[in-house]
Amino acid sequence: MTVPLITPNDYRRACRHLTARDPVIAAIIRRQGPCGMGRFKRTDPYLALVEAIVWQQLSVKAAKTIYARLLAKFPADDGLTAAALGKTRRARLRHAGLSWAKVDYLKDLSEKVNRGTLDLVALETKSDDQIISELTSVKGIGRWSADMFLMFRLGRPDVFPVGDLGIVKAVQKAYRMRKPPTPQRMFKIAEPWRPYRSVASWYLWESVENAPLDG
Description:
The protein is globular. By secondary structure, it is mainly α. Helix 2 (23-32) packs across helix 12 (197-207). It contains 12 helices and no strands. The longest helix has 16 residues, at 100-115. Helices cover 56% and strands 0% of the residues. It has 2 domains: 8-40 and 158-207, Orthogonal Bundle (Endonuclease Iii, domain 2), CATH 1.10.1670.40; 45-152, Endonuclease III, domain 1 (Orthogonal Bundle), CATH 1.10.340.30. The protein has helices at residues 8-21, 23-32, 45-55, 60-72, 82-86, 90-94, 100-115, 128-135, 143-152, 165-174, 183-190, 197-207. The model has no long low-confidence stretch (mean pLDDT 91).
């Protein structure tokens, strides 16, 4: 199966497409300059999911602090891996600042990876919908976390995370809405952005200085 991936050269093409299709996004692109989405790309699929779980419902500052503490718990050469986390006591993970719920989420993720019931390498060749279905079978990984994985680990070009509060805020501000838009309204606005909704989302985050997975 051939899956679309966004490359550095595609960013310029995406910006031209978005500029031609939506004057609101065009104005944001002019203000923000070249797309920097690629600098957020995560190379390790397991760590990308760990990070997504840690970042759920936290401020940028809090998430960075807790994630750094978690990484510091695994100073060996192999670092933080599914095998290493699977052997780590829950209390030690909790001491990094994780909630007990997130400790359970990370344990479930690690167990599924270690058993092979979640093959992170095989995800590379699957469709967005298939990946979302597999990832959301893990405790604590919902649609937001799956969307972040698609965008910042796999480089999928046409993801639109309507459940992200930063995106909701950015759309409301950019399109001068009195109330936060509904997902249905957001999907309608984003229709002209296809097949580069991921790039448009990055620009929206930047427009409110709320880029996800910053670090």
